[in-house]
Amino acid sequence: MKIFLVGFMGCGKSTKAKQLANLLACPVIDIDAVIVEQQQMSIADYFAANGEAAFRQLENEMLKSFDYPDTCVVATGGGLPCYFDNMEWMNQNGITVYLEMTPPQLVSRLHNREKRPLLKGMDDEQLLTFIIGKLEERNVFYHQAKLIINAFDLDPKELLEEIEAIG
Ligand SMILES: Nc1ncnc2c1ncn2[C@@H]1O[C@H](COP(=O)(O)OP(=O)(O)O)[C@@H](O)[C@H]1O
Ligand SMILES: O=C(O)C1=C[C@@H](OP(=O)(O)O)[C@@H](O)[C@H](O)C1
Ligand SMILES: [Mg+2]
Q: How many structural domains compose the chain?
């Protein structure tokens, strides 16, 4: 079973991927972390040096070229499902899970904004407006996930049970 976690920045993909992988005793792959390791620079630095379009190309290549073990949990970047045929590819190659949260819940989780180039320098009010607009664009992709679950206060064991029920 390959589990792909998708959702907006701050919904907990990276954190929950590690927790799920712990429960399953399987590898965790965080696409952003793979990019950081391969490029030897942070996501923010990569955006600054090469721009967003180059980043989208790179995450598309990483997603498709990674040698996934049979059982693994994959944390995607928040934008990854929304470019190219990435969402379709993940649906063909594993179980996709949308960790859904409301815009105010996302604001409350997004403290470290400098790490996320799209959020750089935003205060809470600007961030809330940005999230509402971006979610409108992105929901069409996120909603193609096989499982959609509210992820605020979600226990990893409960999440795993929900995934196993459909997998
Ligand atoms: N259950 C939780 N309770 C409180 N904060 C959390 C929880 N899970 C994750 N966080 C925090 O929320 C932020 C976003 O989590 P992260 O896993 O990086 O999300 P994503 O990968 O979806 O952007 C991080 O600062 C993380 O420490
Ligand atoms: O939503 C996005 O476009 C992005 C989300 C980030 O990942 P997280 O969702 O893990 O923060 C990272 O890939 C990059 O900053 C762009
Ligand atoms: Mg992440």
A: 1
Instruction: Say if CB 128 and CB 57 are below 8 A apart.
Output: no
- Which tokens sit at 27? 């590898």
Ligand nearest to the CA of 47: 2
Predicted TM-score (pTM) of this structure: 0.98
Q: Is 13 annotated as a binding residue?
A: yes
pLDDT digits (tens, 9 = 90+) for 30-76: 999 999 999 999 999 999 999 999 999 999 999 999 999 999 999 99
12 is in an annotated binding site: yes
Its domain, for residue 137, covers: 2-166
Show the ligand 1 pocket: residues with CB < 6 angstroms: 7, 9-15, 75, 109, 111-112
How large is the ipTM? 0.99
Nearest CA residue ID for atom 5, ligand 2: 78
**What does R_g of the chain's alpha carbons equal in angstroms?**
15
Q: What CATH number should be reported for the domain holding residue 12? A: 3.40.50.300
Averaged pLDDT for residues 78-86: 98
